[in-house]
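wait is this the right file?? whatever heres the structure
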């Protein structure tokens, strides 16, 4: 007998798929993976039992204590498309902790697309750290605060990976776009399939206020929760025949991206003169929100 999702879960999946259709037309996709079964799609890879799949595969939790963190990875690799996951981050005093959620290939010349959530003291905002690695090189950090409490409920964090650009989204709102600028010599991740990974770990040497605030282990275990994984594969004809201009955000989403970057961006490598005294990386000459 076919399984029936709980109505609230079904509604969440409908919302996720609706966001896909709004931002990019359905004709650009050919398959959707929204099984909502972590047993089927993922495996716990480390943590000695601190990572658990619960509720018949509908919920996954990762925990951190003063002995170890934990992590999981997808069973299959992805090559272009959209990845969605709903996360509820560590509540309360999460200072010193990092919850990482990212796509990555393997090897020294790996590609990687990163979300990292840097914990903070109770009442202080989380920092959302983003980065893009190409052929083993990163150093393209942008950081943001959020316009809501990410510990009070689940929110959807998405990576939309086109051959022409990468878009980071939160609840369907784009917060960052990294364009394919190979024409000016900037490498772009387009040749290496990636798996999806997530982990929670202690990084109190740098994560909160540059390491000034340490992890309070009396608050352990620190728990991050996951549900409603969704993958939408990009249609092969789009990857081979569409132009960059046809894969941009629509005007409404572009304005939302500019709004986030104006009001919630707290660090941009392209404006860090102390870090790049000899000049910014070449992509910084371009307004990546355009």
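ok assuming it is, sequence goes like this
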């Amino acid at each position: 007998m076919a399984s029936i999702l709980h109505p609230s879960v079904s509604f969440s999946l409908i919302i996720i798929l609706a966001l896909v259709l709004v931002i990019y037309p359905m004709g650009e996709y050919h398959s959707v993976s929204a099984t909502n079964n972590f047993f089927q799609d993922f495996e716990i890879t480390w943590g000695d039992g601190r990572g658990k799949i619960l509720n018949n595969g509908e919920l996954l939790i990762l925990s951190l204590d003063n002995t170890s963190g934990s992590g999981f990875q997808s069973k299959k690799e992805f090559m272009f498309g959209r990845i969605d996951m709903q996360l509820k981050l560590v509540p309360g005093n999460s200072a010193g902790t990092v919850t990482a959620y990212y796509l990555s290939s393997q090897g020294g010349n790996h590609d990687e697309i990163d979300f990292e959530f840097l914990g903070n003291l109770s009442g202080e905002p989380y920092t959302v750290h983003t980065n893009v690695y190409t052929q083993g090189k990163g150093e393209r950090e942008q950081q943001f605060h959020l316009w809501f409490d990410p510990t009070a409920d689940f929110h959807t964090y998405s990576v939309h990976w086109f051959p022409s650009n990468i878009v980071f989204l939160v609840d369907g709102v784009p917060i960052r776009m990294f364009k394919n600028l190979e024409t000016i010599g900037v490498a772009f991740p387009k040749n290496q399939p990636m798996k999806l990974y997530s982990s929670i770990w202690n990084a109190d040497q740098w994560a909160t206020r540059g390491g000034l605030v340490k992890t309070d282990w009396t608050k352990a275990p620190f728990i991050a929760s996951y549900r409603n994984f969704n993958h939408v594969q990009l249609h092969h004809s789009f990857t081979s025949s569409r132009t960059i201009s046809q894969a941009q955000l629509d005007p409404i989403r572009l304005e939302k991206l500019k709004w986030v970057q104006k009001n919630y961006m707290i660090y941009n490598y392209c404006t860090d003169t102390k870090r790049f005294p000899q000049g910014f990386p070449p992509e910084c000459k371009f307004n990546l929100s355009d």
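The first helix runs from residue 7 to 23. so i think its the right one actually
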